[in-house]
Amino acid sequence: MTTLEAVDTPESLAAVSYLLNLVLKRVPSPVLIKKFSDTSKAFMGIVSSQACSGSTSALRWVLSCLATLLRKQDLAAWSYPVTLQVYHGLLSFCVHTKPKVRKAAQYGVCSVLRGSEFMFGDAAPEHHPAAPSTAKFCVQEIEKAGGAKEATTTLHVLSLLRDVLPCCPAAAVKTCCETLLRVMTLSHVLVTACAMQAFYSLFSAQPGPSCLPAQLNAQIITALYDYVPSASDLQPLLTWLSTMEKAHVNLGRLQKDLCWAHLPRLFSAAMNCFLSPHLQVVSAAAQTLENLLTECVAPHMDELGTVTASAPAPASYLCKMFRSVEDGLTYRFHAAWDEVLQVLEIFFESCGKQCHPIMRKCLQSLCDLRLSPHFPYTAEVDQAVGAAVAAMGPEVLLEAVPLQIDGKEENLDFPRSWLLPVLRDYVQGARLGFFTSYFLPLAATLKSRALEFSQAGKSLESKIYDTLQWQVWSLLPGFCTHPTDVLGAFKGLARTLGMAISERPDLRPTVCQALRTLIHRGCETDAERAEVGRFAKNFLPILFNVYSQPQEEGSSSTQRRSVLDTVRAYLTVTDPQMVCGFLQKASEKLTSPESSEFARLSLLDLVVAMAPYADEQSLGSLYSTIQPSLQSKERSMQKKAYRVLEEVCAAPHAPCQAFVCSHLEELQAALLDSLKSAASPAKRPRLKCLFHIVKQLSAEHEPFVTALVPEVILCTKEVSAGARKNAFVLLVEMGNAFIRFGPTPQEAMERFLLLVYAGLTGSVTMISCTVLALTRLFFEFKDHMGLSVVEQLLQNVCLLLGSRTRDVVKAALGFLKVVLLLVDTKLLAKHVQTMLEAVGALSDDMRRHFRMKLRNLFTKFIRKFGFELVQGLLPAEYHKVLVNIRKAEARSRKQRALRQAAAETEEEEEEEEPAQPRGDSMEEILADSEDSEEEEEERQRGKARKKQARQKGQAWLKEGEEDEPLNFLDPNVSQRVLATEPAPKRSRKVKHDFQVAEDGRLIIHDEEEEMENDGAKGVDEEVADVLQDVGLRTKKSQKRRFREEADDEEPEAGSYPQYRAGGSGIHRQLGKEPAFGAEYRAKKGKGDVKKKGQLDPYAYIPLNRAKLNKRKQAKMQGQFKGLMKGAQRGAKAGRKSHLKNRRP
Question: How far apart are CA 247 and CA 240, in angstroms?
Answer without folding.
Answer: 10
